[in-house]
Each structure stands twice: as structure tokens, then as C-alpha cells.
């Protein structure tokens, strides 16, 4: 009778740890959970059986938390919702009680301990006890290295966001105990050594199954660590950054031809993605990830059907600071010269420097004799086309002046048919209809341009697999080639020993891919930061980039609503690191709070 | 001079030398004394009223009985005739306001709804705070089963004979393992040994909501949109005028029939009953239907040495649940829109649609009538509780008794939740397909316990002793499954669960009495729970109590005004292990559903997750000290008791943050923290009028309870804002309460609103409490908590000839409520939101008062919405008349009329100040109910 007090689960969904690995398939299933930890929030998609608690499960999802911390704190995004302390992100007024900071920290820690649990269950001695040999043994060794990569990825996020945290590995046990805190430098050294150790034990670039990490993923992560090493440790490692970004660049990746395709429901078929977080509207459901990124960005006059979803959540927009990044960034003269010879046609109007008097902005000849083209910067106003700086053969839009808003444009006009196009950088995927450029009220969705970059429709406009329109198929490109190009360029400019000419080539490759939107002939560090915004906005890089440039908190760079002030204001330098959450300080006496909190 | 006599066995008496005008005093143990002035008649017949408070009354305690006068613990016993009357569907409602220190708050006004019952405020933080229910000797599972909102609703209130509430540790410790929050023992009615009796009761009741939420009227709404809306908002106004709350609320109608038959003789008694209840709720579609059957018998054999007691009852319940989310939709749905729209592809109901005909999924309220009518959320449940008890007095040693109790509590349920043509789906095609879900669950709780009891008088030392020792085994099996999205086989999901909890105990008790004045009770219980592992499985729970019957002392002999005076002192430790998960201390992996797979290459892999666990989990322990005085004055004109208690819980089973990196989740169950409860309880019964044809009883109780968290985390940091709790509607993840050291659990944690000179709140302006020049979360402060500091109950019972009249009042003082209705439906963006330009929504009148525009997280957390919800309620009034047929006194029939929830006096601005947990949103309104009842006995 007393034996009845020893109960074990009868449920088939639950398996005792000692029994699970009797099934050889279990190794891959536990590995899949480590990857899924970046994509979904629990064992019952989209919600239910959550991995971590204390916050709405949808909010707790790894990518959603990471994205909020990396984007909403910067010039690239605002979010209008009244969710707890969320507004503190854009106001840069968070403290250690902020539940989003805690959820971010908890997610990262969860991911680390999950990886540790897998590594603990797959030690050489445990594998040999269970009689794992042959192909399975080889497979499990690869899984172990991928688990270590994933752990290194989360530790890198921790180093970047929180600095000094506990270091726990598979050598530690599970339970209620109090781990020791390590310095940012110690954690950096750990992650670096881990990545260098597993580098050779990962699959060759592009040889692994889709969505699983390979050598290029590890190299990209190393390049990122090295690029930011000066922030993390005080010692710069730009040479290593150049080395590892070169390894990725030479691994055979190509840029996707159409920029916008990288953010669509079928983006698993695009090229140039080194490591994605995979989502599926039917099988990998969560209220975070791209489901959040797409729904939260839709509101106002945006038609949900265009985004392959059932409705927008009306939250995320951007500030005018990001919009203005697209008003510069090319060498206009060089770009125009690359089109062809100057033609006798030009652009006149209140939006041009000489207004209605001329001389006009020159249009250039293309291979088609009727088609003229130029790159130019315009201000708010109107334009018309005319030859020889004179009236007579002028035309606009069916005889009317053409209204334009300020920006950098590629203007193409067919002087025979009078058809014309006025294009911005095609990477500037803004929704402006009904939206105000400037933000009066963060809570008002129509204040600030909306961003239509991520969509749950494929290249043919067909919505993703979830017919309810709730969950998205769009994968999130966590690491992609364009980022590596820009890392190479930046590390080179910072003295890492790469070729500046090569770096300019890489930038021009990005611009060529962007439907040939101009060229550059020289680059500097400020250009790189702006180009990173143009190429990588809303891809969860921005906070790290601004910190590295000293522009995140106390520098001279401000943007609308930074510091909770409409015009933006400088904030305290301690905000470059998030605080250790008070929940953990109260649970673990070994922890010391980051300076300034 | 005084003369007297005794009656014979049949109650006949003769008394000589009696003159007109003399006063005859009739008294009998257990009955109220009655005085009659002699008139001209030579025959004076008297029927004495039974006195429920008599000291010799038997009180059921754990594994045995005692009497009121010999009880050493804090025990309240309440008989069926003293319980709440009226249209009572579930047993918990009978207790509301009746016992000091026991609060019963119904979860809402749905028929058959559950209640939150707390004895002395609850001693746990995240583990269960519900008391243990023991029904006819079977400790039952208080968690209920899917498809029945109230586990106690499976008991027919008409079958209940009495409640005994064990409050202090001396009384409860014998149920050690689950007794920290008190024990409620329910005894069902038994057959009587004096012949056959049949009782039929029937009633019919109507229920109506007394108030509705003050949503803007159609006119107010039009004005609002015209004033604050954009041109496109104004263009969205319709022509209809719909009061959406009128559309979803209805008159509730209920009927109840019970027939019980009982009879027996000295050797054998039997009682059987059947009952049927049918009630429709005051929200469209909500319904509760129940049939109950019970049988109970007692037989004696072997010269009364063996007594066998058998009980079984069975309840069959049909429920249809209404989605209370329809209440907030009814407030926010545009009143200028009609209920029906013949062109709507969504069942002919008007809905907000996109231009492509699909519903607007986000930012648009759904038609609440459609929500209710299109959803068929029904459940069918059965529950049977029963036991057979053998009690054998040894032939060779009658003082030694062996008792074997075999009991069960088995329930099963099946339910389905289907919705068709609903605009909750993304398109007309999906809506037609509908959404279908089914579930089923079985719970099997088996019990056997055995004890030996030896009781004897030790006359040589003027003492008596009663020793008991026993063993108990209880096994709870809980299994079930559910199938989601049946309508589309490609996304259908199956879930199942199968869990077992095993509890075993060894227990003993010694009761010693000296000189019939000094009583000592010592108990000890050792409990094992399958929730824990290794040495932590077992917990030890001792208790001791001392009582002094002061009125028995010689020096009290002349104090004639004192009919009872007893002092009670007790101490004891009780345990808690009920934390929800069945296997929190062992390492397991959990599989994933089809929707939580991850893509590797072209295939999707189901995952396994390493589950968090804590091998160090052990019993939570509560130590209670109790000081009590029982008293009776002036021949029990006034009786009552006063109890003061102090309770400390240590090693709280707490769901708290784990140190980052230590565990497989960020939080989990651990024994961290401690909590204190202290309180005072007063019960008084006044019986000012005791005449043959007029009797008045007034019962009053008052309680004070104060709970404070004294330790919460491993590392004490006075700046720690505490554990978040109290999720609200509005935004995502907003919480309004914290558990913090030094405060009551669930204390509100808010910004301090700033007001203008007209006392109107200024939007976005809060007090900078830490004077750092900005408003951050560091400016929040702690303000009050949802639990009442003081609770009062007052019942009066008046019997005049064939009339009887009862009423119960109740009051709470110091309970605070967060008005989430105002905070979530009372700001401009709720009505007019540019993110959703194709929708306009209604809100509450508070938007006109506050003038708030933005959602703003800080606005949600403003103390503007925290209100003092102290109240006085008239719970119950009933009046009845008994028709007695003169030729046959045994048969009678009675009619009664009663009203429930008749009056609320409060300053709270929401619908009802009584809110479990203190957050008022979408609560099923508690209606006023009027009932006409018939009672036939023959």
C-alpha cells in the first residue's frame, strides 16, 4: 500500500526522463525543442503549456521579446499599446521591475537551461550506457554541437542585453539553487571558446537541413561577437570580425534578387539567409514571432488581406528618423553617370532646388532612346518634365503638376508616351496612406508611418497556410548575407584589415539588388550605420548597432520620443545595458545589479 | 412557592394546586424552556421548540463525534433549519453569512455557479486556499470536473442535515494533510426510527438582474461620436437603437422538486430521496438542470454491537454555459446597429465586416446575441459519492470500538462546445464549417480508513479517557481527453491526461477529561503524499487543546445568570500539498501538440520538452493558536462564543521565480516564504422571545481577519515590488496586484491619480511619489486589498403560530475592488480608435466623467479605478405558513415565499461590490430571485 505513494505519470504525453531516450528518435525531438524555443512559447501552439510564466504567453515568445528590446527602444519602432510597462521601452525609462525586461531575460535563461539539459542527457557516458552507436551516435554528436551553438546564441544575446549574468552549463544540476554571476568578459570568453570548439563539428555551410544551424551560422555569430567585442570586453577584435565575415561571404551564399521576397510567407525559398527562425501557420504557431511582427504592424487603412492575415493589431510603426534615412545614402552624381549621358530633358517644379525657373534637374539617357532617368532629392512640392529648360513640350500627369513628398528618388520617364515612375529605395516599404510622418501620440496608430515589410503572402500574393488568418508562415531571417557584408565593411573601416574597395563592392551589390537604386563610391562609419538601418530595419539589429556607435542612450543622436519627449532627448548611459530583473535579484543573492539601476 | 413534576414516557403530566394566573415553566434538555400562564383550561399542552444550541448536541468531528460541551476546538455546527432558505441550488449558498470566519463569495449569478469559500482568510499563497469538504465521512475532491462549474452543485441542498465547520488546528489536525484551510463536514439526512414520513417540496422561482452596466445610451453614443469622431466615424453611425444588454439578459426561471421518504424502527432506518432542479440563467442560453438520487440507511445487529451505515447519492447534471464575454461585448457594441441583418452570412446577425465580407477580426466587438445563440457549450456530468461504514463495539470489551469506512467519490463528465456561423471565424466558408470541440473526464476517488477507539470512565481518578488510532488511504485518479477543431480533420488536435494522487495517513487522538471540567485533546497525524519524493513525502501534524468548563466549577454554582462558560486553548500544525501539478518533483519530458512542431528541412518535427521539477518540495506547514470562550447567559437567552487566533504558515508552497539558470523554467513550485493570519470571531445568538406561539431567534456573527506576507523570496530586498498577480482586461499582461512582504496578498499596486480643482482626473498626470521628476513604475504604490477586513452576518428567525419569518443580512467592510469595466470600456480610444478606422464602439458613462482619451498602461493602473466596495446586503427574506390538519397532526403542508439578493447598500459604482479577487469585469450578474415554495409532509 505504501508503495502507492510512488506515482509516475500515466499520461502518454509525459515521459519520464529516464525512459524518453530509449527511443532513438527522441534525440532529434529534444533538439527540435531547442530550435523551437526561438519560435514558439510552449508545447501547445499557439498558447498553452508555456515554457515560462509571469507574462502573457504570446508576449513571452523569444523573438518577440528580443525584437521589442532591439527595435522599440530605438528610432526604428514605436508600439502604441497599453501593455504593462511596454511604453517604457520607447521612452527608455525601464527599470529592474519591467516585466518585459524580465521576460526577455527569462526566455534567454530558459533557452540556455534547455540546451544544458540536452547536453546533460547526451554525454558520452550516457550515450554509451544506452548503447547509442553508429550513425545515431554521429547524428547525436552533430545535435550536441547545434545545441551548443544555440546556447552560444542565447548567451550572446545575454551578453549584449544584460552584460553580467550567471554562467550555467551542462555541468550544473537542475533545481532550486543559486548560480554565480560572471562578468561580461568571462561570458564572452566562454561563448567564443564554445563556438571555436564546435566550428568544425557543425555541418558545412548550406549542407544541413533547412532551419538548422551550420558552420556559417557559427561564423556569423562569431563575426557579431567580434564586431561588438570592444563594447563587451573593452578590447576590439575587428580583425577577427573580418576573418569570420569573410568565411561566410566565401561560403557560396548569394543575395536574393528581390529584397521584399526575404520577408514573405515563402521566404524559406529565398537565398542569402544564413540562419532563420522558422514559422508555420499550421504547425509552428505562436502569438510571437512573425505572427506578431505582421499583425502588430497592420492598422489604419492597411488592408489585412494584403498581408495574408485576418486583421491587424494596430501597434507598431516607425519614427521619422528611420524614414529620413532613405533621403540620403547614394552618390547621386556617380549614380546618374552610371545611367548614361545627360539628356536635354529635365525636371522642374517647386520640389526642385531651382523651383519653377530652372535650370532643371537633368535626366539621363538610357539604352531606350525614349526613356530618361535620374536620381535626385526632392522636397515637398510639385514637378513637371520638360526639355531644354524651357516650356513648350512640358508634361506632367495628364497635364497636371505631379505632387511629390520630400525624398530621394529614382525618376524614370518615357518622353514619348509621357509615362513616368517616381521610385524610392525599394527597401523603404512604408505604408503612408492615412498615416502622419510625425508622432503626436504614441497610442494613436495613424501617427508615424506604418511598415509593410513583413507579410504572410507569398511572392504571388497568396496568403499563408493558416486559413483562419491568425498564424503566419513567414520565417524570420535572423542572420543573412547582407548583414555579413555590412559587418565586413564596418570592421574594415574600424581597422580590421579588410579591403575597403571590396566593402564598397558589397554595398553596391546590396544597392544593385535593390532594383539598382544608385551606387556609392566611398563609405564611412556613419554611412554604414545608416545603411544598416536601410537594409536591416525591423530585423532586430538596431539597438546593438546604436550602442556600438555610442548613439543609443547618451550620445548626440536623438529621435522622436526618445526619452519620452516628442522631439527626443538624451538619456542616461546606463541604459545601454538592461537591468538584471528584480525577480532574479530577489531569488539569487549572488547577483549584483548592473551599474546605474 | 415553586412546585414541579416530570412527565411520563409519553409526555403526560399532572400538576396539582395550580391557580389561574400561575406561571408554568416547561423545560427539557435540548429544547427551549417555555413559560405559560395558566388560564381557565384544565389541560395545557405544550410543544417545545428544539434548541439547536444545546450543549449536549452531538457534533461530528474527524473520525468520531463529540458534544458541544466537550468540544475543545473551535467548531461551528449549523443545522439545516438554520441555513439560508430560498431558491438555493448549491450547498455553498446555504452557508453564506452564517458562520463567523467563513466567507462564501459566489463566482457569479450563473445557475449552479461555484463559490470561493474561505475559512479565516486562507493560509496559503499559491497553493489551494479552499477548505477540505468531508461528505458523510468521505473527504471529497474540491476541484470538481470539467463541465461542472461548482463541484458542490452535485449535492442536493435538500439532502443536507448539517454542516460542521472545523476552524482551529486542534479540530482540523486530525485531517492533517488537507486541513490548513479548515474543514467543512457535511452530513446528509438520515432516516428516523419512529415510523414512516414522506416529504415533498417544490418551488418555482424567477430571477432578474437588478441593474445593468451604465453603457452610453443610443442618444449619448450618437452625441459622443458626433462630438469626438472623425467624419468617417460619424458616417459609420447606423439608424437602429439597440440596448444590447436588454438583448442578452432575460428573466431566469427555475423549478425544484424533491421527494424524500424515510422510515424505520429501532433496528433499521432508511431514507431515500429524489430531486430535480431546472433553472435558466439571466443571460441568454445559460441553463442548469440536475437530478439527484440519494439513499441512506443504518442498521444495527448483534445486540446493537455492530452498526452499519450506508450512504449513496448520485447527481446527474446538464449545463449549458453562456460566454460571459458577451457582457463586455454588449457594453461595447455600437447601439446604433441592429441585432439582425438578413444579408449577413454569419447566421443573419449584424456584425462588423471588412469590404471583402470577412469579419473585422481585431478591434471590433462581436454581436453578443450571436455570440450567445451561436455557441452551444454544453456538458453532461454525473457524480456519485457514497460510503459504507461498519462500527463494531467489541462484545468482550464494549468500550473498544472498531470502525471501517469504505468510501468513493466518482464523477465523470462529457461536454461539447460547438459554434456555427460565427463571425469569430475568418470567412463565411470557415464560419459555415464552424468550430467543434469535445471533452470528457473521469475522476475516481477511493477511500478506506480504519480506526480503533477506546473510551472509558476512570471513576477512581474522576476522569474519562477516549483514545483513537487509525489509518487512512485515499487515491485520486483523474483522467480525460479532449478533441479540438473537430470540424476540420487537417487541424484536429487530441489531448489527454491521466494523473494519480495518493495520500496515506496514520493518525491518533487522546481525549482526557478530569472531573468533567478539564478537557485535554491531543492529536497526531503522519501524512504521505505522492506529490513529493523521498523523505519529503511524509509530514507530521500534531495538535493539542485544552478546555476548561468554568461553569461546572463549584464557585460558579451561585452564578445563576451564567448557563455556560467555557475557555478553550489550542495549538496545532496542519499541512498543505495541493499545488495543482501531480508530479512536481520528478524529471519528465512533455511532448508537443501538432501546432507546436518545428521545421527541419521539409518536415516538421514534434518536440519533447524537459519539464521543470523540484525534488526538494515538501509539505507546507501552518501553525495555529486559538483562544476561545463559549458562553451562555440567562438560561441561554444569550449564547455565543468569541475566538481569537494567530496562524503562521511557513515553507509556503509557492509558485515563485527561480534563480535564473537554476531550473527548466523561470518560476516554479518551491517551499519559500511565510505568511501570518490573525483574527477575531464573535458569534452571538439571542433568543429574546420564547413563548408557545411566538419565538424569536437572532444570530449575529462578526469576524476580523488580517493576513500579511512575512517572507516571499530567498533574498529579501525591501525595494522588490513583489510577485505580480491580478491580471486585468485591457492591454496584454497588465496586472493590478502584487504579493509583497509586509502586505496582504494581492494588494493593489497603482499610480496615484492627480485631479483638477473640479475633482476630475487629469489624464496622464500622476503623483511623482519618488520625486525623481518623471513618472515611472517606481512611482506606483500599494493601496488596500480585495479581502474584507471585517465581515458581519445577521439572521433573524421569527415564529408566530403557524407563521415563520426569516431574514439574513450580511456586511463586508474594507474590501476594495478594481473597476475594470470603467478602466477598459471608459476612454475615447475604446470608442473611436484610429488603428481600426472602420469600427466605432460603445463604452461606459465613466468616459464622460473622466474624459480620458488614451489607453495608456498607466491609466489602466491608476488608483482612480480602485474603489471601496464595502457593502451591506440583504441576502434573504422568507415568510412561510404551515397548514396543520387538525385531525392528523403528522401531516402538514406549508407555503413559503422568499426573496434573495434583495438589497445592496454600497458606494461601489459597479454592478456588484462583491467580487472574488477584487477585479470586476464580465461577471455574471447576481440576480434578484423570488421564490414560491410548497412543502408537504405526511
The main sheet of chain B comes to: 22 strands, antiparallel, barrel
Overall mean confidence score, pLDDT of chain A: 95
The CATH C-level class name of the domain at 327-423 in chain A:
Mainly Beta
Instruction: Note the beta-strand portion of chain A.
Output: 5-15%
Describe the structure in your own words.
The complex is a heterodimer of chains A (597) and B (938). Chain A is α+β, with helices and mostly antiparallel strands and 597 residues long. Chain A has helices at 17-20, 26-36, 62-72, 87-91, 99-121, 124-129, 134-161, 184-198, 215-227, 229-233, 238-249, 289-296, 320-325, 332-339, 481-496, 500-513, 525-536, 542-548, 582-587; strands at 14-16, 78-79, 273-277, 316-317, 342-348, 361-365, 371-378, 381-387, 402-404, 407-414, 420-423, 430-431, 450-451, 476-480. A 7-stranded antiparallel beta sheet of chain A has the order 9-8-5-6-7-10-11. In chain A, strands 2-4 form a two-stranded antiparallel ribbon. In chain A, β10 and β11 (420-423) form a beta hairpin. The model of chain A has no long low-confidence stretch (mean pLDDT 95). Chain B folds into 2 domains: 1-48, no CATH class; 197-937, TonB-dependent receptor, beta-barrel domain (Maltoporin, Chain A, Beta Barrel), CATH 2.40.170. In chain B, the strands form 11 sheets. Chain B has a 22-stranded antiparallel barrel. In chain B, β29 and β30 form a beta hairpin. In chain B, α6 (325-332) runs antiparallel to α7. The radius of gyration of chain B is 30 Å and the shape is globular. At the A-B interface, β1, α1, α2, α5 and α19 of A face β20, β21, β25, β26 and β28 of B. β1 (14-16) of chain A pairs antiparallel with β25 (588-591) of chain B, so a sheet runs across the interface.
Question: Outline of this structure?
Answer:
The complex is a heterodimer of chains A (597) and B (938). With 597 residues, chain A is α+β, with helices and mostly antiparallel strands. Chain A has helices at residues 17-20, 26-36, 62-72, 87-91, 99-121, 124-129, 134-161, 184-198, 215-227, 229-233, 238-249, 289-296, 320-325, 332-339, 481-496, 500-513, 525-536, 542-548, 582-587, and strands spanning 14-16, 78-79, 273-277, 316-317, 342-348, 361-365, 371-378, 381-387, 402-404, 407-414, 420-423, 430-431, 450-451, 476-480.
